[in-house]
């Protein structure tokens, strides 16, 4: 697509052109000057583009096609689970009986919505092996913070005031140490061993009577299953700590194993990842949290509960950490997740994991011919390659990621996890056809060939996008966020 085909809307503006027709204003002149403070009143006319409705539509539709989305192409962004978002979810979320209700309506008038929200809580409890689930938190990171605050209250309630450490692996998602810090803990790093798993000896050395919790993702951020999880749980529990499960990516274990069975006490889920909530534009998300019976009193209030045949919000929860979100979570995203779970059923969810793991292993084995594979055991839903071989030839992982754009692919997650040099973290998801996986593999092979024969092509990419190489540091430090036409 050429830049010229989509001139910016300010450049299309012609004085006096309008994109709307409204009836004459028949409201008596308002005394605006006395309604607002002087500093709020505009002194000059707003400089808005003057365009026709059609030009406006072309502007926004043009912008939308510049974006790469799951509906436009393969999106193997590791740890983000960019799977297909079934359109049936959208239909259900738009049913007026759900979409037209108001959060301040009487409970008795919204029993249908409370019914499915409660059923979703129960389903997620079953899927994770937890006792009780809240739908309040709006994102994974908020779920982490909620869970850690509960662990903190639990220890404090036991008079255990010195438990200030939360242990986090060096491969963990960045939100883990951040949430631990925001929740008032000190984040302590446990090392990863040469097989990409938590170093048990290092863990034993770190765990003591100051340990509040171990935060873990399993399979971990390298896409590898922590085989010693039961032993790790025992080490932490014996020292009086709790186990926190970062369940943002549940795609590899659905129906096969559960955090509760592994010994975890608190779990958060990202319904916008595993359970097909659309994401990628920054939200809205949903990060429900599940806990064991022991931690149930600390859940945020209100908690949606069932009494007899009706559903109600329970505010009478003296040990609760309090409210973490207005109303009761992102209802629309939760409804999409509920639709997905009910559509798939238990067997369907199991198959999700089977295909997610099969697809990842297929790609990993084939790509290991052209790229360094630091951990060689089978992976789960994702895997991490290193661009070491290519770096020796002068091409960085960033260059290869940019080159992928020219072939219509969203690049994988790069330079994460930080314990792998020149990391490329690839998560194909279960919803992709084999031909799509093959197409991506062949493109990666082609890029690896280019690196050998003509590295400059890769170093200068991309060529096909509206903007080429951006100065990413300056873009982050001094962002230009609005169009300046003068
Ligand atoms: C995405 C992700 C998170 C954070 O979730 P948000 O909804 O973006 O806050 C946490 N942990 C892992 C492993 C993730 O992949």
TrEMBL record:
SUPFAM superfamilies: PLP-dependent transferases
Origin: domain of life: Bacteria
Residue ranges occupied by any Glycine cleavage system P-protein N-terminal domain in the UniProt entry: 44-301
GO biological process: glycine decarboxylation via glycine cleavage system
UniProtKB keywords: Oxidoreductase, Pyridoxal phosphate
Pfam families (UniProt xref): GcvP2_C, GDC-P
Transmembrane segments: none
UniProt cofactor(s): pyridoxal 5'-phosphate
Modified residues (N6-(pyridoxal phosphate)lysine): 273
Domain Glycine dehydrogenase C-terminal: 353-453
Reaction(s) catalysed by this chain's protein: N(6)-[(R)-lipoyl]-L-lysyl-[glycine-cleavage complex H protein] + glycine + H(+) = N(6)-[(R)-S(8)-aminomethyldihydrolipoyl]-L-lysyl-[glycine-cleavage complex H protein] + CO2
A molecular function GO annotation: pyridoxal phosphate binding
Oxidoreductase in keyword set: yes
Listed Gene3D superfamilies: 6.20.440.10, Aspartate Aminotransferase, domain 1 (3.90.1150.10), Type I PLP-dependent aspartate aminotransferase-like (Major domain) (3.40.640.10)
UniProt GO cellular component terms: cytosol; glycine cleavage complex
Family matches, as InterPro entries: GcvPB, GDC-P_C, GDC-P_N, GDC_P, PyrdxlP-dep_Trfase, PyrdxlP-dep_Trfase_major, PyrdxlP-dep_Trfase_small
Record EC number: 1.4.4.2
Assembly and interaction partners: The glycine cleavage system is composed of four proteins: P, T, L and H. In this organism, the P 'protein' is a heterodimer of two subunits.
PANTHER family the record matches: GLYCINE DEHYDROGENASE (DECARBOXYLATING), MITOCHONDRIAL, GLYCINE DEHYDROGENASE, DECARBOXYLATING
Function: The glycine cleavage system catalyzes the degradation of glycine. The P protein binds the alpha-amino group of glycine through its pyridoxal phosphate cofactor; CO(2) is released and the remaining methylamine moiety is then transferred to the lipoamide cofactor of the H protein.
Entry similarity comment: Belongs to the GcvP family. C-terminal subunit subfamily.
Protein name: Probable glycine dehydrogenase (decarboxylating) subunit 2
Organism: Salimicrobium flavidum
Taxonomic placement: Bacteria, Bacillati, Bacillota, Bacilli, Bacillales
């Amino acid at each position: 697509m050429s830049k010229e085909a989509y001139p910016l809307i300010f450049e299309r503006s012609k004085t006096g052109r309008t994109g709307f027709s409204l009836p004459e204003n028949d409201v008596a002149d308002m005394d605006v000057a006395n309604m607002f403070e002087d500093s709020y009143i505009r002194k000059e006319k707003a400089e808005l583009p003057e365009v026709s409705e059609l030009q406006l539509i072309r502007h926004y539709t043009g912008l939308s096609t510049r974006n790469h989305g799951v509906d436009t192409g393969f999106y193997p962004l590791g740890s983000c689970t960019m799977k297909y978002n079934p359109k049936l979810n959208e239909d259900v979320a738009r049913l007026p009986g759900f979409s037209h209700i108001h959060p301040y309506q009487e409970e008795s008038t919204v029993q249908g919505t409370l019914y499915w929200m409660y059923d979703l809580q129960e389903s997620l409890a079953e899927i994770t092996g937890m006792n009780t689930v809240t739908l309040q938190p709006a994102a994974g990171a908020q779920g982490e913070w909620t869970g850690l605050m509960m662990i903190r209250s639990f220890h404090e309630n036991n008079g255990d005031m010195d438990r200030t450490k939360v242990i986090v692996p060096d491969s963990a998602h960045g939100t883990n140490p951040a949430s631990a810090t925001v929740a008032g803990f000190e984040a302590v790093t446990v090392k990863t061993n040469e097989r990409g798993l938590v170093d048990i000896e290092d863990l034993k050395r770190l765990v003591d009577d100051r340990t509040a919790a171990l935060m873990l993702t399993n399979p971990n951020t390298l896409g590898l299953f922590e085989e010693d999880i039961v032993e790790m749980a025992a080490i932490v529990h014996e020292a009086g700590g709790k186990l926190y499960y970062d369940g943002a990516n549940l795609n590899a274990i659905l129906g096969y194993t559960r955090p509760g069975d592994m010994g975890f006490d608190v779990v958060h889920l990202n319904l916008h990842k595993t359970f097909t909530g659309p994401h990628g534009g920054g939200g809205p998300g949903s990060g429900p949290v599940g806990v064991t019976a022991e931690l149930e009193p600390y859940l945020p209030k209100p908690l949606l509960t069932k009494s007899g045949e009706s559903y109600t919000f329970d505010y009478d929860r003296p040990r609760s950490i309090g409210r973490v979100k207005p109303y009761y979570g992102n209802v629309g995203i939760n409804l999409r997740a509920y639709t997905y779970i009910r559509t798939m059923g238990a067997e369907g969810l199991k198959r999700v994991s089977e295909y997610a793991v099969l697809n990842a292993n297929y790609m990993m084995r084939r790509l290991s011919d052209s790229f360094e594979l630091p951990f060689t055991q089978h992976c789960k839903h994702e895997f991490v390659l290193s661009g070491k071989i290519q770096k020796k030839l002068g091409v960085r992982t960033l260059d290869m990621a940019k080159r992928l754009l020219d072939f219509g692919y969203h690049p994988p997650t790069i330079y994460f996890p930080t314990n792998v040099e020149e990391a490329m973290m690839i998560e194909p998801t279960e919803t992709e056809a084999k031909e799509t996986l093959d197409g991506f593999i062949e493109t990666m092979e082609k890029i690896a060939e280019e690196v050998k024969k003509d590295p400059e092509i890769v170093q200068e990419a991309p060529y096909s996008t509206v903007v080429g190489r951006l100065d990413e540091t300056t873009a982050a430090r001094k962002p230009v966020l609005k169009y300046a036409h003068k």
